[in-house]
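Sequence design from tokenized structure. All designs in this work follow the same two-part layout: the structure record, then the generated sequence. An example of the structure record is given first.
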């Protein structure tokens, strides 16, 4: 059996190359990996897997004026139809770029709004977009590739990047079954439309399955498979763990003091992270937070970290620990590639930190998987607030974050005083809100962690047969 594995971005590398998925896949299968990994990083994977994997670069995706407008109209129509709070916010964001780009996106939004108002036409728009891309030379390229080495199934590790559409269209022409993995817990309620028409969909949980069927009513229920996610599989691998003393020594922390991890977000989503770090450090220095904790700041992988320079200079006791990701194209979120050591570091950070602080981050789920307390910052420093409304009324009203609130899986600091109060409470009793964290994890990740890669391979075997 041959699997065509699409790896369009760094998140796909983390989930399907740096874990055990590919190691298990090549035991009795041939794999052709179509990837966007930078040329200076692909050598490590070629050396690791040798001839067991054929590595082929994904061709760059170049829209025409027509395909660009159709693609954005389709995304806009989908978001207007779904009408979630997060999508309504995204549709209100200003359009950046050249006047041609702004004009095309503005036109696309008008078309999308009209289709949503009519209540029909989304399928026809999708068909027009696919028909336009179907004539691209990239589709012909993948047709030749798949004819020479016919895969039994094409599996895409991330559903959003536009460059996945040509190989999927080529596979469909050859009647090769296709499947994709829904990358993150928030994607179906907050991001745009899935970029290609797949035959099967692999999801984290029953919750995600219901979301998929709600927002994509054309998908058949028997084509949606609950597998869990390989994102958390490393947390079940005890061989990755160092002792607490070794981990703290590696990051330059003291073993007899609590460790608070502040997880940063994308600057466009969490523009005040550096200011929230300053508030936290002032509370510690001022004695409002007890226990003499030390703070490790881990920015988002897509953040170059320059915005933290002033607070790091003001508080040199901060442990600054940027993720081990390679930034090949800084203006593109899908061109950030993780290194293997980052997987092990994050496994140890979530294990050994006493608590986590973030602004509506996926790291809330990472630390909840480890049963580590989480505090979500829900106050603004700037006046007026960056998003025009208070932070509590913005991120924490998005659909994907509602279970965190409903289950009381984290505590929300709506002022610096509440931040100090919650930190003190959790440092004194880390078992607080344990049941809420457990219920939250059970909802978002239905299957036990540690075996998602094996479950995904099993589903792919069923699809291929």
């Amino acid at each position: 059996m041959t699997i065509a594995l699409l790896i369009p971005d760094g998140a796909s590398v983390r989930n399907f190359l740096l874990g055990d998925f590919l190691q298990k896949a090549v035991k009795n299968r041939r794999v052709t990996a179509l990837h966007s990994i930078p040329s200076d990083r692909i050598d490590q994977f070629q050396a690791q897997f040798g001839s067991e994997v054929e590595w082929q670069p994904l061709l760059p995706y170049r829209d025409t004026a027509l395909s660009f407008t159709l693609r954005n109209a389709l995304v806009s129509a989908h978001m207007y139809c779904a009408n979630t709070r997060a999508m309504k916010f995204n549709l209100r964001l200003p359009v950046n770029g050249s006047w041609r780009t702004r004009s095309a996106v503005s036109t696309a939004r008008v078309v999308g709004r009209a289709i949503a108002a009519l209540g029909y036409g989304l399928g026809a728009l999708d068909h027009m977009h696919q028909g336009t891309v179907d004539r691209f030379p990239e589709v012909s390229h993948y047709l030749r590739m798949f004819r020479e080495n016919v895969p039994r199934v094409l599996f895409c590790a991330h559903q959003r990047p536009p460059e996945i559409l040509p190989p999927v269209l080529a596979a469909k022409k050859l009647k090769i079954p296709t499947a994709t993995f829904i990358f993150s817990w928030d994607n179906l309620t907050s991001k745009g439309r899935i970029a290609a028409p797949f035959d099967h969909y692999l999801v984290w949980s029953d919750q995600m399955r219901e979301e998929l069927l709600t927002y994509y009513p054309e998908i058949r229920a028997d084509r949606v498979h609950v597998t869990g996610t390989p994102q958390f599989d490393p947390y079940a691998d005890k061989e990755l763990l160092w002792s607490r003393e070794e981990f703290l020594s590696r990051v330059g922390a003291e073993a007899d003091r609590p460790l608070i991890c502040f997880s940063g977000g994308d600057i466009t989503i969490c523009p005040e992270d550096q200011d929230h770090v300053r508030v936290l450090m002032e509370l510690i220095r001022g004695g409002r937070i007890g226990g003499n904790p030390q703070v490790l700041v881990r920015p988002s992988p897509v953040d170059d970290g320059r915005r933290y320079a002033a607070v790091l200079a003001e508080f040199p006791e901060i442990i600054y620990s940027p993720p081990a990701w390679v930034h090949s194209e800084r203006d593109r979120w899908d061109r950030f590639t993780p290194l293997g050591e980052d997987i092990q570091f994050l496994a140890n950070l979530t294990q050994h930190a006493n608590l986590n602080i973030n602004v509506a981050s996926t790291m809330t789920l990472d630390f909840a998987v480890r049963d580590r307390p989480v505090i979500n910052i829900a106050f603004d420093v700037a006046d007026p607030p960056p998003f025009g409304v208070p932070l509590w009324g913005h991120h924490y009203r998005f659909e994907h974050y509602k279970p965190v609130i409903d289950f009381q899986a984290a505590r929300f600091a709506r002022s610096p005083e509440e931040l100090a109060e919650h930190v003190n409470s959790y440092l004194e009793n880390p078992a607080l809100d344990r049941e809420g964290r457990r219920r939250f994890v059970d909802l978002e990740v239905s299957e036990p962690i540690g075996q998602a890669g094996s479950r995904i391979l099993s589903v792919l075997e069923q699809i291929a047969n």
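DSSP finds 20 helices and 15 strands in the chain. We note this feature because it recurs in several other targets discussed in the main text.
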